[in-house]
């Protein structure tokens, strides 16, 4: 039951953070997907994407693909938190230890992340293509999925698997910092075995921000390549379409960045990525911490109700 509580809390937290920050995510993704020489760039910075939407009266297009993104986020976070919680409890049971070390935590996070990536990769690809489409020309989820082959739906799978180290580093750091903060609280209160301990909203927000910032900086070149691989083809001209098709592999994306933008191109949009991912992760963990106890109480009530119902049926 604990795994289901963790998974539900994580999924709801992801849903809230994704919806709140989606316009920023759309601007960031379109800015990252552009790969041109400096004097031919359509967007000089992330604010240019926003002004393009406003000037073309396509402000609502900043939310293109929101439904797909929310569905993807909910499913991925549910799978991740369920797998992470399940593998963590299994490790503690098999090892006989009372706490989990940093190395084991990292391995468990990567394993849970890899399972999640494989399961939701088609949704991830469709979501990226919908976000990077020209404003007002985004296609629906079913159309985005049905018009592509299975291999195209799994574009960027290898680099997505590589990026599973990002959330594992984040959640490992978050858990370790959380345990230190709660150590004194548990000593004073003697511990509460009936429900999971919770941080204050502010503490959870700050720990989530710090842990995600480090992981994002380390893995950003891979993040930029992934966005380029999964981006939609532009309607501008055939030359641009040819450029997009040529970078649909990791090596092609790396070469395209190096050739047109130089070494600094690997970190194009880093500030926006940090802002979005830090806020998103911090909001996710903050909401998760706040609803975990409520979910736990509801699950206990449902479990007790089912137990009493089954007892009455047996006695009758």
Summary tags:
mainly alpha; 316 residues; 0% strand
Describe, in short, the structure shown.
The chain is mainly alpha-helical.
List the helices and strands and how they pair.
Layout: H1 2-20, H2 22-33, H3 46-55, H4 66-95, H5 102-132, H6 141-146, H7 150-153, H8 157-162, H9 165-189, H10 201-230, H11 238-246, H12 250-261, H13 270-315
Describe this structure in words.
- The chain has 316 residues and is mainly alpha-helical.
- 76% of the residues lie in helices and 0% in strands.
- The two termini are 28 Å apart.
Series of H and E elements: HHHHHHHHHHHHH
- Number of DSSP helical runs: 13
What value does the Rg take, in angstroms? 22 Å
- Helical fraction: over 70%
Give the N-to-C terminal Cα separation: 28 Å
Regarding quaternary structure, how should these chains be classified? single chain
Strand content: under 5%
Mean pLDDT: 79
Largest sheet: none
Overall geometry comes to globular
Query: How many beta-strand runs?
Result: 0
> What would you call the structural class?
mainly alpha
Query: Which regions have little confidence, pLDDT < 50, spanning 5+ residues?
Result: none
């Amino acid at each position: 039951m604990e795994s289901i509580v963790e998974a539900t809390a994580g999924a709801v937290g992801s849903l809230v953070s994704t919806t709140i920050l989606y316009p920023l995510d759309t601007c960031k993704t379109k800015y990252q997907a552009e790969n041109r020489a400096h004097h031919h760039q359509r967007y000089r910075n992330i604010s240019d994407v926003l002004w393009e939407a406003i000037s073309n009266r396509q402000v609502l297009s900043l939310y293109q693909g929101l439904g797909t993104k929310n569905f993807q986020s909910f499913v991925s976070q549910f799978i991740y938190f369920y797998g992470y919680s399940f593998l963590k409890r299994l490790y503690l049971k098999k090892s006989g230890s009372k706490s989990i070390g940093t190395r084991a935590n990292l391995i468990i996070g990567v394993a849970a992340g890899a399972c999640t990536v494989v399961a939701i990769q088609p949704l991830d690809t469709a979501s990226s293509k919908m976000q990077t489409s020209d404003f007002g020309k985004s296609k629906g989820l079913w159309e985005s999925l049905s018009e592509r082959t299975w291999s195209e739906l799994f574009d960027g799978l290898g680099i997505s698997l590589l990026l599973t180290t990002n959330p594992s580093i984040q959640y490992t750091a978050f858990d370790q910092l959380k345990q230190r903060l709660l150590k004194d609280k548990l000593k004073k209160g003697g511990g509460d075995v009936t429900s999971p301990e919770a941080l204050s909203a502010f503490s959870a927000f700050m720990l989530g921000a710090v842990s995600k910032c480090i992981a994002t900086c380390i893995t950003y070149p891979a993040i930029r390549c992934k966005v380029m691989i999964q981006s939609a083809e532009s309607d501008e001209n055939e030359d641009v379409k040819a450029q997009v098709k040529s970078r649909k592999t990791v090596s092609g994306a790396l070469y395209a960045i190096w050739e047109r933008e130089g070494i600094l191109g690997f970190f194009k949009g880093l500030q926006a990525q940090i802002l979005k991912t830090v806020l998103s992760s911090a909001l996710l963990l903050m909401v998760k911490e706040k609803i975990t106890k409520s979910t736990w109480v509801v699950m206990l009530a449902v479990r007790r109700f089912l137990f009493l119902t089954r007892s009455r049926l047996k006695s009758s």
